[in-house]
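Forwarding these from the shared drive since the link keeps breaking.
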Amino acid sequence: MSKLKVQQPIIHLPAFTEYSISLPDLNALLLKAGIAQIYLWDWTFWYVNLEDWGRVFADVLLNMPKYTTEKFDCENFALLTSARVSSIYQLNTCGVAIGESPFGEHGYNLFVARVDNETKLFILEPQNGMIYPIEQSESYKPRLVFIG
């Protein structure tokens, strides 16, 4: 009888160009956006262009748990999204934001992306996948952000 060799699954991650931003530079970008409380937990932060973020979010937002009031609600979606981005893609610039939204006080994600050779901030609503430039953020106004 022949021996069957079990193959390990191959995980195919998209290839993309990573950019980095230092803690002082990211802090300055967040302050310029008017965010009152900022917690940055690394010295170097890694991010990709906006198109590649779309591919990352298409992956990490699949198969999210069902919304459950007070058990798995807005801030839990934001925390899980940030954790999945970090664990799968090793990108540490998808942070968690708490602040105003069209729904009142809310938890969502804030991320850093490269657009036209500039570093910019965007809001991600992890419950529906919508992305907004922070300056055109449909009433999303982060008050507290932690990234790392």
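-- next protein --
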Amino acid sequence: MSKIILFNSPRNVGKSRAITYLNSKGYNLISAECKESLHNLTMTLFGVDPDRYWEIYNTRELKEVPLPEFSAILPYSEICSMQELVGRWVTKDIFGSHRKVEFTIREAMIYVSEIVVKSRWGNDWFGKERVRSMVKLENNYSDANGCFVNKDLTFTDDSAAFVEELAPLIEYIGQENILLLRVHRDGFTFEGDSRSYIPDGVIDNTIDVYNNGTEQGYFDQVEEIVRKFLNE
């Protein structure tokens, strides 16, 4: 059976850097992120070219700024819902019962996730998409000879943040094959974000990790936990 390592924390705490480090140490972790589907949907709905989208997403100065690429005309009710989610009033111009908004890329992702998708297809939709992606990767794994074989893999997701998205994963691979790392760092919170820490009791194997010292010390903590999990 495949396994998965979930990272859960506010932004800029070190989740993706830990995964990069683990891969550099030979762990061969395969991405299975709920937010992969979210990125694709956000690009499509806002009509943003992929090259431009990733330029914005990977540039800190652009990532936190409202941009015309992520503008839309929305009903007042959705704007009020977004204000509750992101903590700021996003409206610009008024068009009758609708208003024009200009989001940051992060706010655009929150809008697509919370207002467009989950309100219509359920809070577990992205979790189901992750499982479908995992099944596809397992069934289309190519061995050293280029032949497709069914294979148990080690997956990772640095965007775990919603309890409802975990139910399909638990059903598919079981609690014993899931590791949840809640990463903490002084001064970093979920303020202005729709995400949160996964509470106790959801994933049996939940461990809190603290990134308050040296980066190497944090990496060493994570590697020791992951090594034990994969060798059990």
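The two ends are 13 Å apart (CA to CA). Residues 105-121 form the longest helix (17 residues).

- D.
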